[in-house]
Amino acid sequence: MGIPGRDGRDGRKGEKGEKGDTGLKGRVGTPGAGARGDPGPPGKQGPMGERGDVGRPGQPGQGGQKGDKGKRGRRGTGGVCKCGSLLPKSAFSVAITSSYPTEKIPIKFDRILLDEGGHYSPETGKFICAYPGIYYFSYDISVANKHLAIALVHNGQYRIKTFDTNTGHHDVASGSTAIFLNPEDEVWLEIFYVNQNGLFTDPGQADSLFSGFLLYADTNYFDTLAEDYV
C-alpha cells in the first residue's frame, strides 16, 4: 500500500436547501452593561378607547366685558287706543213703587230708571261704590198725609237729614250733597223717625226718586288703573 495522497480541492457551492423548522426560544440573556439608547420615534396612534364618565363642572369663569350697544330696532306697529275703557262710569236714578215704607231701614227704590255700572241694588236699596272719588247724591220725595223725616246714610252714618211738615196737601221734600267714597262704601236713604214716613208715590200723580253719580274718580286710583291696563 502506498503513501496517502494529498487532500483534494473544495468542491463547488451546493444549491440552497429548504428552510428548517423554527427552533425553541432561547433563554433571556443577561442585560448588557452598555448605556441606555435614545428613545425611538413615536409609534402609530392606537384605536380610540371608550368614552369616559362626565367630569364635575368647573368653577364659573369671570364675566365677560359689556358688549357694544346694539343698533336701534325697527319701529313697531301702532296699537289700538282703548282710552275710553279706562274711564270709570257710575250713575243711577231709581224710583219707588209703594208708599209709606218702613222706618229706620234702607228704603228700597225698586224701579230702575238708570243704573250705569250696575252699582245700585233694588233688593237692598243700597248704592255700593266701585271707584273711589267724589259722588253727588240727591233725592226728590213726594209727601202726602204724613210728615216726612228722611236722611241720606253713608256706611250707617247720617250725612244729611231733612224734615217736611205735611200741611194737608201734596208736597215735595228734596236734598243733595257731595261725598267722597271708597270702594265698597254704601249709601242709601232712610226714614229716621217712627211714623214720620209720608213718602208717597202714585203712577198717575207723583214719583219719589233717589239719584247719584260719580263726579270724578280719585286721580291716584285712575293712574294705577291705567298702569295695570297697559
Automatic annotation (TrEMBL):
Transmembrane domains' residue ranges: none
All copies of domain C1q, residue ranges: 85-221
PROSITE patterns attached to this UniProt entry: C1Q
Signal peptide feature range: none
Biased composition, class Basic and acidic residues, residue ranges: 1-24
Pfam families in the cross-refs: C1q
Chief location category: secreted
Protein name: C1q domain-containing protein
Protein species of origin: Knipowitschia caucasica (Caucasian dwarf goby)
